[in-house]
Design goal:
Helix content: 25-40%
Distance between the termini: 43 Å
CATH superfamily of the largest domain: P-loop containing nucleotide triphosphate hydrolases
CATH topology of the largest domain: Rossmann fold
Largest sheet: 7 strands, parallel
Number of domains: 4
Structural class: alpha/beta
Shape: globular
Number of strands: 22
Strand order of the largest sheet: 3-4-2-5-6-1-7
Bound molecules: adenosine monophosphate
CATH class of the largest domain: Alpha Beta
CATH architecture of the largest domain: 3-Layer(aba) Sandwich
Strand content: 15-25%
Length: 605
């Protein structure tokens, strides 16, 4: 890792937080943490250029927690995030860091959640609010949220907030925060508008950027699997089963806890695996490495620090189960394979929200990383059957089968069955708890997402939570029409392929007269209903209302969330559109027997 700081203790955090970090299994600060934490503890404003996966949440969360006065049950920190999913995730992270801070209260507030619940929670008093801009704005307007005691304000994923059309709301909020407070702004990129906001509202901010040093990697086959539809553990075992030339693997995860958990799970599935982390003393560590060398172990699950310098030539695979914090860590990790002139394979698991990190790694290593198609059920079954046949063939070639052939003949006679049937029964018995045929379904792409919370630091206690349909990261794949420095005219935007599958057209009560743009609609729907933007169909923007095509079969939860959604403060009142099918807009036509649409919609996606 680029971090020259080896322990959190060097950064000036309190004993209580250090204890928590050790308990949740964080060994060393990530580079962004090493740089940001001292600056924020110093009370300075800062701009952090960091993307998801770098550990940025802890980078701002830990210092702000040091400033919280538990006795004052008022919001002392406000974190603005672009999506409700991120709001929940950040709140969960804070909750886990508050393990040894009794009475600490963090509250996520976001659109789509009932006001009644939020009002009740707000009135109980929270020390930290994590919210999406629209809902925070609503509460400030209603005076149900008071920022008089605010000490820290964090803008998380500022460029995403811009991209989703929330920047005006963010500025509105910034205008209404007390004079004296610390502000931290995190953004993966620095578009002009974000820079302008930073200049206007931050005081002499320290800029922190994690440089991604370029590095050449040895001739290692590098592939990535985009995590979707299947749990990482299932994907891992499928890959381990069918990978060609598999001999031994080092699997990288982020925390000490995860090394142990994953080793246990792999052991339970019949793999010879062990954990390697900073809790092991030198002797134990050497023992694990010796076992990997000798073949007593095939898999070692390690943290970055613990795996430094391992040189075991039989390591045919490095698996980045958790994405590294930066490119340097990636290069170190994959350097554990392809040693002593052997072939090496590096497999990277990338959650949708970590796609940016993947691209950064590709740029820094100047090598494309190819997508890996996960082996299907049939692939795994075929491989198991092929291995089984090889084993049987080896036994057939060996001497000394007469005794057993005699038993088979007896069975055939006694049971009046063929030798084939007896062989089938024996093959079934020989599966030894690992069926040759893989059961279950292969993952299918889903328009309505369900959040999978793998590798969250901890669960979010007893908080009331709705089922979630959104995985915030996939926003990063949204067509980047807002990436350009100036707002493009809609006509300039790249046309997107229509989503496959059945679509239903809905009407919403916001249109051009409300100042609504296509991206506001996409942002609100993606955010509130958790529908990936690529599954959002054509949008027709009219004067007073708009139409939007969404995949058929919307879950009730998503539909309810959308019914309550507001765009630019206007309730959208989503309902199925009874009008003509898409493509036939235009000209004067009636809707609901009342409204007339004289103009052609000018934005069709
Ligand atoms: P973030 O970039 O903030 O979304 O963090 C990505 C993941 O890294 C989260 O699952 C964190 O729990 C984890 N993480 C953050 N900092 C550390 C650390 N110093 N050691 C281990 N895991 C960490």
């Amino acid at each position: 890792m680029t971090s020259t700081v080896d322990s959190f203790a060097e950064l000036g955090l309190s004993e209580s937080l250090l204890k928590t970090l050790s308990e949740i299994g964080y060994e060393t600060p990530s580079p962004i943490q090493a740089q940001c934490i001292p600056v924020l503890l110093d009370g300075r404003d800062m701009i952090g250029m960091a993307q998801t996966g770098t550990g940025k949440t802890a980078a701002f969360a830990l210092p702000l927690m040091e400033t919280i006065d538990i006795k004052v049950a008022k919001p002392q920190a406000l974190i603005l995030t672009p999506t409700r999913e991120l709001a929940i995730q950040v709140a969960e992270a804070l909750q886990s860091y508050a393990k040894n801070l009794p009475g600490f209260h963090v509250l996520p507030i976001y659109g789509g959640q009932s006001y009644t619940i939020q009002l009740k929670q707000l009135s109980r008093g929270a020390h930290v609010i994590v919210g999406t801009p629209g809902r925070v704005m609503d509460h400030l307007e209603r005076k149900t949220l008071n920022l008089d005691h605010l000490k820290t304000l964090v803008l998380d994923e500022a460029d995403e907030m811009l991209r989703m059309g929330f920047i005006d709301d963010v500025e509105w909020i910034l205008e209404r925060t007390p004079e004296q407070h610390q502000t931290a702004l995190f953004s993966a990129t620095m578009p002009e508008q974000i820079r302008r906001v930073a200049q206007k509202y931050l005081v002499d901010p320290k800029e922190i950027k994690i440089k991604s040093a370029t590095a050449t990697v040895a001739a290692i086959r590098q592939v990535y699997w985009q995590v979707s539809g299947l749990h990482k553990l299932d994907a891992l075992t499928r890959i381990l089963e069918v990978e060609e030339d598999f001999d031994a693997a080092i699997i990288f995860v982020r925390t000490k806890t995860a090394t142990v958990e994953l080793a246990d799970k792999l052991n339970a599935r019949g793999y010879a695996a062990a954990a390697l982390n900073g809790d092991l003393n030198q002797q134990m560590r050497e023992r694990v490495i010796e076992q990997l060398k000798s073949g007593a172990l095939d898999i070692v699950i390690a943290t970055d620090v613990a795996a430094r310098g391992i040189d075991v030539p039989r390591v045919s695979h490095v698996i980045n189960y958790d994405i590294p914090y930066d490119t340097e860590a990636y290069v170190h990790r994959i350097g554990r394979t392809g040693r002593a002139g052997r072939n090496g394979n590096a497999i990277l698991f990338v959650a949708p929200r970590e796609i940016r990190m993947l691209r950064t790694i590709e740029r820094a290593t100047r090598q494309p990383i190819a997508p890996l198609t996960l082996p299907s059920r049939a692939d795994v079954t075929n491989k198991r059957v092929a291995d089984f046949k090889t084993k049987v063939a080896e036994v057939l070639d060996a001497e000394g089968l007469d005794f057993f052939a005699n038993i088979v003949s007896q069975l055939c006679e006694e049971k009046d069955v063929s030798a084939e049937e007896v062989a089938a029964a024996l093959a079934k018995m020989a599966q030894e708890g690992k069926p040759l045929e893989v059961a279950g379904e292969d993952p299918q792409p889903r328009p309505f997402r369900e959040e999978r919370s793998e590798h969250r630091p901890a669960s979010f206690g007893d908080r009331e939570r709705k089922p979630r349909f959104e995985d915030r990261g996939e926003r990063s794949e949204r067509p980047r029409f807002e990436d350009r420095p100036e707002r493009p005219r809609r006509e300039d935007r790249p046309a997107r392929p229509a989503p496959a599958g059945d679509m239903v057209r809905y009407r919403i009560d916001v249109g051009r007269e409300h100042g609504v743009e296509v991206r506001d609609i996409v942002g609100a729907i993606a955010n509130e209903a958790g529908i990936e933007s690529r599954f959002i169909g054509r949008i027709g923007l009219y004067e007073e209302s708009s139409t939007v095509e969404l995949p058929a079969g919307m879950p009730a939860e998503a539909a309810n969330a959308l019914k309550r959604t507001r765009i630019r403060g206007v309730p959208i009142n989503l309902r199925q559109d009874e009008g003509r099918p898409s493509g036939s807009f235009g000209g004067e036509r009636k809707f609901d027997g009342e409204r007339k649409f004289k103009k052609k919609p000018f934005a069709d996606r």
